[in-house]
Structure prediction request, 476 residues.
Amino acid sequence: MYPTTAKVVLSFFLLFLFRASSSLAQNAFTNDGAAVYLQGSANIYVHGNFENKSTGQFTNSGAVHITGNLVHNASSNLNATASGLFRLNGTATQLISGSNQPNFYNLSIDKTAGECQLQTSISLSNQLTLTNGNIFLNNRQINLLTTGELSGETNSKRIYDNPTNTGTITITQLLNAPAATNPGNLGAIITSAQNLGSTTITRGHHEQFIVSANSVSRYYDILPASNSSLNATLRFNYFDSELNGQAEGNLVQWHSPDNGIIWSKRGGTINTSSDYADLGGIDSFHRVSLISNSITPLPLNLLSFIAVKNNSGTVNLAWTTTQEINSSHFEIERSLNGRNWIKIGTKAAVGQQGAAETYSFTDLFPGSEANYYRLRIVDLDSRFDYSPVRLIQFGKEMPVRIYPTVAGGNSIYFIEGVQPGNTAISVYTNEGRLVHSSYLNSNSFRLPITTAGIYHIRVANNTNPLAISSQKIVIY
Prediction:
């Protein structure tokens, strides 16, 4: 490590350790408690690992070039808000890890070989630049806050995750009458004459199961504060490496109002040379992905599906359908974590067209804590679809407190009893409609909701899916 062209200011009342090493397995820069300030025109070149730990503070207004891993184990945040750059330029896979989430201003991936892999979630407020090399999300989240932007992403250097992983990249921006606006440069280009207000856009790479096949390895959750009568146009961009076995020329947009359980075909126009699918006339935004136009939704109409916990420790499930054209049977499935499912029963479909039919099933042996239920609805030709998921909770919930419980629209809330970086929140209306979801980077968060009413905030721990809680709030 050697500074150039400007000073590095250290607070020596704390311990500062510096070691040089030719081995990337060892730390070349270790801050074990100092307050370090890198001035604006300074450069530090770290030939090995960079670690900020203990009570160390690192304020970067210059540029830090790292060939090894970036590890942030300090009790305070990695302060990169002073317009500084962290550049990863090693020749092997480089990890961003640590017990405390790093917060960057500028981050550049500029590698001649290997990739950047996240082992902790990160936030970024200005430029995330892909010059060379991929970023592997590895089930983690990138939060671009309100001002961050992705730059330089192509099919050969991109942000990606395994098709079954839940890594995402998110931005929240004010979209009032957007005209071909691409928030954060994430690839969801929105046009509407209406004011959408504060809008959170999350891009994920988890393949979506739609009726009978998996979608491309990309989806968007688009959650505007105002989400009706939009008459909007969405251009859904993708890369060829995300096609996931789909025939590109047949791709159309499918939308899901319940986070990927029930899907409806919306259509659109595909441009295979520029890799996007356009769709206009969108009334409201939800989750959207791409799958073949040849996939046909099941004709069955599921009117309701409920789960009720009994005092005896069993769970009653009941559902009502109409239009059971070509229907075969229902398979009742249960999961203890919301991801791994087992079949616990089967009900034959009556198969009558037009008439409403009601079914019931009792789970005699539910799990001791969280129990997720869904229906696998199967047609006579073996096509199938899934119902929405219902949750029954036994045992203790997380001791979580959210306040204030009564507040105005677009307010800031505080949460106690959770660990930021491992916690997700989902906000539902009193009727059960999802209106917002995000990951927590601190013990305070803003809800971009301006419509008055009663809402329910569901809190989930990413490292322990059984640990959940919910709280009611009132927005006036």
